Amino acid sequence: AAQLEAMLAGTEGAEAERLMFAGIVDGKLAGHAQVALDWANGVGRLARVAINPRMRGQGLAQPFLREVTRRFFADPAFERLELNVYTFNEAAIRTYRSLGFSEEGVRRSSAKVGDARWDTAIYGLLRGEWAERAAAAQ
Description:
The protein is of the alpha+beta class. It has helices at 2-9, 61-73, 90-98, 127-137, and strands at residues 18-25, 28-38, 43-51, 80-86, 102-113, 116-126. Helices cover 30% and strands 42% of the residues. It is globular.
């Protein structure tokens, strides 16, 4: 509870530390995402993306993250949205690519999980790329 309260407190103020999003379907929590904000560099880092396990496979991630991205870029202070994703998470990677994110590199063996080492891919989306896709979708 204390950790959640601290995260919520970070969403307040003129230059909040983060944005937090909840996707609701039929009154139930369907998804969650956060964007950590780097105001000095105009960069956001998409993180803690989760779709309710009971609601996966229903095509909810793409529209949810499209709205998160739209709201993020609604602030002209930000030029770039980036994220890290484990390279084996093919469903997430397909979703991010469908939203216009481009792979920018792989951090090999960057996460230790138990006795295993996982690779992390870095993806980025620039304001201009997002704007082009948004205009083409209309």
